[in-house]
Amino acid sequence: MFEYLNGKLVKISPTNIVVDLGGVGYLVSVANPYAWSSLLQTEVKIFVHQVIREDAHTLYGFVNEAEKLLFLRLISVSGIGPKSALAIIAASDNEGLINAIDNSDIKYLTKFPGVGKKTAMQMVLDLAGKFEANEAVGLSLLDNDSTGNLALEEAMEALQALGYKVTELKKIEKKLAQEGVMTSEAYIKAALKLMMK
After folding, report:
1. Where are the domains of the chain?
2. Which partner for 105 in 54, 88, 94, 100 could form a disulfide, CB atoms 3.0-4.6 Å apart?
3. Residue 20 three-state SS
4. Using CA atoms in the order 104, 107, 75, 131, what is the torsion angle rounded to 10 degrees?
5. CB burial class (10 A; 0-12, 13-18, 19+) of residue 68?
6. What HEC string does 21-81 produce?
7. Are 188 and 179 in contact (CB under 8 A)?
8. Which family does the entry's similarity section mention (predicted)?
9. 5 pLDDT more than 90
10. Does domain 66-136 sit in CATH 1.10.150.20?
11. How sure is the predictor about 175, in pLDDT bands with cuts at 50, 70 and 90?
């Protein structure tokens, strides 16, 4: 499975871009191809997700890992396929999308193409509370109050990847910050001790 492509952006069409990597052109479906116009004929790094079906192998591309994560969460919802997920991401109001999911705003969600009332309700059921609004705009998954403590940020992200909720982690993050500077591993161990109390 591909994680990202590093290559030259050589072509833009209404639904795809083409990235030349070592003389091979990779056709990548993206939410808004024309947002890449300023990068035409330059080296780009594009995060990708490959979908393999009986009749096609398709690469879907994203500007950053946060956008890719949002896409993956959207396609995990029954009734939302990759094309619908790209259409939702193309609206560029990811913060509004997440707020709508968290607040069960069905009317807002049904404004997206291919999302009816049933799918909107499924989105709320499957995704409410699963991410913070800042996750979708490529910022840190947690509010670190601009501490600049990279090891603590990495520890919080690792704990979230293990399945701990952002709300749980926010409660212990300030306590961990008061412990002083430690390694990511030490922060993780300290966090687990705090959460097991």
Report:
1. 4-62, 66-136, 140-196
2. 100
3. strand
4. -30
5. buried
6. ECCEEEEEEECCHHHHHHHCCCEEEEEEEEEEECCEEEEEEECCHHHHHHHHHHHCCCCCC
7. no
8. Belongs to the RuvA family.
9. yes
10. yes
11. confident
